[in-house]
Specification:
The protein is mainly β. It has 4 helices and 19 strands. The strands form 5 sheets. It has a 6-stranded antiparallel β-sheet with strand order 10-11-12-19-14-17, with no helix packed on it. Strands 1-8-3-6 form a 4-stranded antiparallel β-sheet, with no helix packed on it. The model has no long low-confidence stretch (mean pLDDT 93).
């Protein structure tokens, strides 16, 4: 759970702030409820299990839909990769047999990674994060995960981790051979700063800002912004000198939707920031 670090609200959880401040914090166009996104840093010292999550069409309470995106922060060597989707459409029975035979990965697409790459993982897309990847994960606020395959690993006591094959088989999109890589779209005009869109979706919007000089950003009040520093350091300034906040590599900061304007000042030349905003048109989950 995220905790407010400073100011008069220090010590309050994000859940407390959402409850007390509502649309002033998250935005008028964001669906009411818990904070809509989870932001994580995943440091994969080993290849993680193959997983899948339901989407809105496949989620009935208590299951929750989850679409996510990965931004590669580091790949420890040239062999670092991620897995997403299938090499070709596959029959469910064929994939079930591959799981039982311990060779599910041979049917999965594998993608080499480089710092700055983005990968979009919608609900129902089979996926796994490979060894050596340091990843910023942006996802819907959901706890529903079906573990499909765990690379035939066993714990020291000889017991394998539980799999959720039957649940997974109900949601996997077996015809999914799409390219998960995000194509950056430039947004900046003239000037020393570079700004590009990595992904626009109903669930979240993600941009990369490369700052050489101060940059002013604006809120319409419809949604908040989350800043994550991926290189260098920045100061976040408002119209009050009492509200200046500094953030360095690996830090995040939530900017309330009600803050109409704020300025980013790079404290290190060519600092990089991920700008993340909740989507305002995510479909509603199905109901049984």
């Amino acid at each position: 759970m995220s905790i407010c670090q400073n100011g008069p609200l220090a010590g309050n959880s994000l859940g407390d702030l959402v409850r007390d401040w509502g649309t002033r914090l998250v935005g008028s166009a964001v669906r009411p409820g818990p904070f809509p996104l989870l932001i994580k840093i995943i440091d994969a010292h080993d290849t993680l299990s193959v997983q899948v999550h339901p989407d809105e069409s496949q989620s009935n309470p208590p299951t929750e839909p989850k679409t996510e995106m990965w931004v590669i922060l580091e790949g420890s060597d040239k062999t670092a990769m991620v897995f997403a989707g299938f090499t070709k459409p596959i029959f469910p029975a064929t994939f079930r047999h591959a799981i039982q035979a311990g060779e599910a990965d041979k049917y999965m697409n594998q993608w080499a990674v480089h710092p700055g790459d983005g990968f979009f993982i919608p609900g129902r897309r089979l996926h796994a994060i490979g060894k050596g990847c340091l990843i910023l994960e942006i996802q819907q606020n959901s706890n529903t995960t079906y573990r499909v395959y765990d690379w035939n690993r066993k714990a020291p006591d000889g017991v394998s981790r539980p799999l959720h094959i039957e649940s997974a088989m109900q949601v996997i999109r077996f015809e999914d051979t799409g390219d998960p890589r995000c194509v950056p779209i430039p947004r900046s005009g003239k000037g020393p700063n570079n700004r590009c869109s990595l992904k626009t979706s109903p669930w979240f919007n993600v941009e990369r800002l490369q700052l050489a000089r101060e940059c002013s950003l604006h809120h319409s009040g419809e949604c908040c912004s989350i800043l994550h520093v991926t290189r260098g350091a920045v100061s976040i300034l408002t119209d009050s000198p009492l509200h200046e906040v500094s953030r360095s590599i690996g830090d995040s900061c939530l900017i309330p939707a009600s803050l109409a304007q704020f300025t980013l000042r790079p404290e290190v030349p060519d600092s990089d920031i991920m700008l993340i905003q909740p989507g305002t048109s995510a479909p509603l989950p199905s109901r049984a």
